Structure formats: structure tokens, C-alpha cells
Amino acid sequence: MAQRLAVDLHSPAAEIIRTAVTVLRRGGVIAYPTDTVYGLAVDAGNPAAVARLYKVKQRPAEKALPVIIGAPEQLAQLVVTPSQTAQRLMAAFWPGPLTLLMHPQAHVLSNLRGGSERLGVRWPQAALSQQLALGLGGAITATSANLSGQPAALTAGEVGQQLAGSIDLILDAGAMPSPEVSTVLDVGTEPPQLRRAGKISPVALAAVLGYHLAEPTGSLE
Question: How far apart are CA 119 and CA 76, in angstroms?
């Protein structure tokens, strides 16, 4: 049964971060509240941990695992130089609920991309997510904390109902206010392609890009 610890999403205690990072460093799986819904974190650079996460979620291998960085400086560890379009979007919406699909560095684990050539990356607003990645020293996964195909979890209790027997730690910050997930935008193409609608609206994206995007053509859980 997973250990469960109360946490403040915006001002997490240092001891909670240390405990969680210790779990991540030994290849563990953590459920944690992001700035959207509850997510599942493993060390995105640990092949065994990533493989375990696919098993825990019962996630098809062709479905990608998006990742979270703790600060913009960590982005270069993961992707090649972002396009000017990507940089404009990051300046406008990061930190925040916008996942950008970008071309990965050669060393990035291929199974994080699933069947795609791109890696989904987000710099979230929530201090908890940032500090987990900063404490680890690298990206963590950000896939939703549920069995593949099931609704996203909005509370630690909902996480526990599906996953408590197969993960190591649940960080409980209470109920998330909305089931709305991050917007997913592929910036590896010109013009960018909207892959999933989410918290960042098409209108807001169009205001930065100067044009409207086509309807979503895919999804990331």
C-alpha cells in the first residue's frame, strides 16, 4: 500500500520534497498534484522506472509520457534548441498548463515518446512539481494518475482507488479544482498543431501566434 503524505501544492515542506525525491531516485512511482490534475512521477532518465510506470498505468507502449521540468534551465537537457515559435509560446504561457511537443536530444529515452518523434515537455506553475524536478536534478513524468483510459484523478482518494497497491507514495494536496488538463501543442512543425485541447484556450494561443489552429489531431493522457 502506498504511503500517503499531506502536502501544500504551492509551498511544500522541504522534508516532503526530500522524501519524494528519495523515492524517485530509487526508481519509485509517486502520485502528486500538478497544476492540472493528479499525475504520476518517475525519474524520466531512469529506464527501469519508466518501464515500471507503463506497467502501473497499463499504458500502451505507443502512447507517450509527457515530462515536467523544474526550471527553464532544465529544458536543454531534453530537447534541441526550440524554434522561435516555441520560444514565444513559452514566454507567454510558461510556467503554466501548456505541454509543448519538441524534438528530443538523442539521449532521451525513446519510450517517453511512445510512437511519436517528439517529446512532450511542460514547465508547470505549481511549486510542488517544480521542486520535485529541481530536487531530482532532472525531468519527472507528468502522465495522469489513473489507469490508462480511465478518468483523470482529482483527489488523492481517487488515485488510491485505482493505484494505491502499485505505487510507492501519494502526495495529497486535497481536491484539484477542475478536470481540465494541459493543452498539448506540437511545435515541431510549422505551423504548430494542436494535439489536445486543455486549460490554455485556442483563443489565447491565437493571440500569441497570430493565427488560429486547426482542431486537435491527437492526445496525451
Answer: 13
